[in-house]
Amino acid sequence: MHAIYPKVRSAGKGVSLPVLVALGVKDTGEKGLLALATGGAETAAAWQMMLEDVATRHLGCPLLITSDGNAGLKNARERIWPGVAHQRCTVHKLRNLFAKATEHAQEAVHEDYCRIINAPNRAAAERVRDSCLTKWRKPCPSVAASLEEAGKELLTFYRFPANQHKSLRTTNAIERLQEEFRRRVRTQASVPSEKAALLLFFGLFASGQVRMRRLERWFDLAEAAAVAA
Questions:
Q1: 3: number of CA atoms within 13 Å, CB side?
Q2: From CA 154, how far away is CA 149, in angstroms rounded?
Q3: Would you tell me how many other CB atoms lie within 10 Å of the CB of residue 118?
Q4: By CB neighbour count within 10 A (0-12 exposed, 13-18 middle, 19+ buried), where does 27 fall?
Q5: Cα distance between residue 14 and residue 5, in whole Å
Q6: Tens digits of per-residue pLDDT, 123-139?
Q7: All CATH 3.30.420 domain ranges in the chain, comma separated
Q8: pLDDT per residue over 177-207, tens digit each?
Q9: Is 7 helix (H, G, I), strand (E, B) or coil?
Q10: CATH topology of domain 1-88+171-229
């Protein structure tokens, strides 16, 4: 789950409007669009309305939710699906770390971060993370604080088979949708309305112009989640 921000005409002006997006993975391993919704901002109320819509359509409780650190989404998720495993997007967290690091420290921060998310198992990842927190607390306290803020939710993907880690730990599939949207409106300053934005996003899926790769070894997901629970 993630929000993307297309340029939309609203009240006579071109503004960046959040479009809330939920993608899901079927029990066959295929990815599909669960919901699209617009909102004035990424508030808990906006996300809750969307998640309630997904829940009332009886699509089932997810095994894992991958999202960024938006507080509104977190609050809504905990109300609708309390206790469901949550994975913080590792790409978004890396961007946050870069924003906190001085330019000369960014390469070292990147190397340390890659050691965390590419560790052979969760126990090893936790050891590397603890070591990185100790290393960066003095020279870059804001980097350490940002890494610590994600907590254990940064490493939830280690519960699942290793061949699925890259798919489960990021919201890249949703960001690819935004890239396709931008490509189609490149010659326009903005689309004419909220409805037009939703129709264009939906059309990318309905027409098959956006194709998403099936998860490898998708049949392991349920078993892995049951073991990890």
A1: 23
A2: 9
A3: 12
A4: exposed
A5: 12
A6: 999 999 999 999 999 99
A7: 1-88+171-229
A8: 777 777 777 666 678 888 888 888 888 778 8
A9: strand
A10: Nucleotidyltransferase; domain 5 (3.30.420)
